[in-house]
Design a protein that fits this description.
mainly beta; 81 residues; 10% helix; three-stranded antiparallel β-sheet
Length: 81
């Protein structure tokens, strides 16, 4: 790993902590992930994914607006609802 980066690895997640305070967490679409909040998602090979799992687990996680470097929400970016 790069100097200043700390990482946690689990069976179904990866979490990277950067020296600037940023954090990147990657999780699977599991029932145990219901209720977490996130800023973005990446769905690999979407056509092969379970549509119910995406609708019921992944999309509800996406209710946190991304913040700019100064900590404010960008007023020109679509707001997650």
């Amino acid at each position: 790993m790069t100097e200043g980066v700390h990482a946690n690895f689990g069976k179904d997640y990866v979490e990277l902590f950067f020296k600037n305070g940023a954090r990147l967490t990657v999780v699977g679409a599991l029932d145990s992930d219901r209720g977490i909040r996130t800023h973005a998602t990446l769905i690999d090979e979407a056509r092969d994914q379970d549509g119910d799992a995406i609708a019921e687990i992944i999309l509800p996680q996406m209710n946190v607006s991304r913040r700019m470097e100064n900590g404010l929400v960008n007023p020109y970016e679509k707001i997650n609802t």
